[in-house]
């Protein structure tokens, strides 16, 4: 017999529905209070509370949610345009702990098959972070270099480790691809709407910024930069989403989902094209060739792509005029008396890249330290006689930038990380256990290639994009390989199935 006023153990425990209602009511009250002072913060609390509840029931959806939020730059938009405190906006990365904790708990319960699988290349990623810190310690401006090393650690190392361990299983890998591709489609749709309506004075809630412009004939064309705010970085993010979108379309088992993925890839390409970036156009053309060689796109599928590209150039003659200047770069390798003279932008990029190479030659072991190449750029660049640099400039090419700031140690760890991940993805594209995994491996491989091709014209910045992408790819690369086929068994089923093929469920 229990005493009055006491509760018998287990007699009246609140069920899941009761807890859900209680948390929802609490979130509603908090959101209402905050909305009176900071509307955006109140809305964020409401959405965040409901999202947290959903993820508590389905932790496997945490990584896809982070993929969308990070790639669409939602946390930065919340801080920059809506006054959300940085601490709250940055907390979205903690969502990645949910699937990690669940996997650890299941392993502790004796379900070893649910244990964590380490991402491929983890030692090289950690080595790169360690070398960055070591390089900063010996830099001529240690305080500034250590800040750069901290950025690599927080937006690089932490993102890589959390993402790499949070993504476990084929379904999660496909959902992460869906989240990233959805972000590209969203940003591309907003950019397309901005261009069509001509509302260049509106930021569309912070998701449609404009970064400079150019004049072609009588037309002045703003260059769209999406939520990132930097046109070339926006183009890079969109090309990655497009490349992954094609791979995702091939991995989907539903015709409807395949169509949605291809439409999303098209929107991403449209958004990237509206940056009017010459580097984006060159990288997109090169990516198409790589995907064709990789067995993802057949010749007949290139015809509609070429038609769409031609239509785009007809609709935007200012882009056609801008792309015509790409050939001017050839003048850099010709005689000085050449009739064709590269524009100042091309000369500036060439100056910065060569300066980075010279800095690496003079500091071959540890480099000059994270974030410090720009302080050397004028000293080395202005001695070349190509174009005078009047301010501190970045290298504007990925690998020379890594070499200049990290030396051979940093460049080696960085290159070995990429080589380990991409080699394993290449093997998976032929020997993964399922066709879905084979196609996803091709998609993630293409996304990395897209990033690196754009990296021919961009240095390492906005590092969270790179480290999230390489971590997701490293998680994909950690999937098991099927045993090699014997010489007499013939080609593996589900081998390369190019886009445009008419076999079975091909896209």
What does this protein look like?
With 507 residues, the chain is mostly helical. It is 64% helix and 3% strand. It is built from 19 helices and two strands. It has a two-stranded antiparallel ribbon.
Shape: globular
Helix content: 55-70%
How much strand content do the residues show?
A: under 5%
Strand order of the largest sheet: 1-2
Number of strands: 2
Q: H/E element string?
A: HHHHHHHHHEEHHHHHHHHHH
Low-confidence stretches: 1-25, 27-38, 486-498, 500-507
Biggest beta-sheet profile: 2 strands, antiparallel
SSE class = mainly alpha
What is the alpha-carbon Rg in Å? 25 Å
Separation of the first and last Cα atoms: 69 Å
| Assembly form of the protein | single chain
Secondary structure tally, helices: 19
For the residues shown, what is the average pLDDT?
A: 81
How are the secondary structure elements laid out?
Elements: H1 16-37, H2 39-57, H3 62-71, H4 74-82, H5 86-90, H6 97-108, H7 122-137, H8 142-166, H9 170-197, E1 209-216, E2 219-226, H10 231-251, H11 255-273, H12 278-293, H13 299-315, H14 317-323, H15 344-362, H16 374-381, H17 398-431, H18 435-454, H19 463-477
Antiparallel strand pairs: 1-2
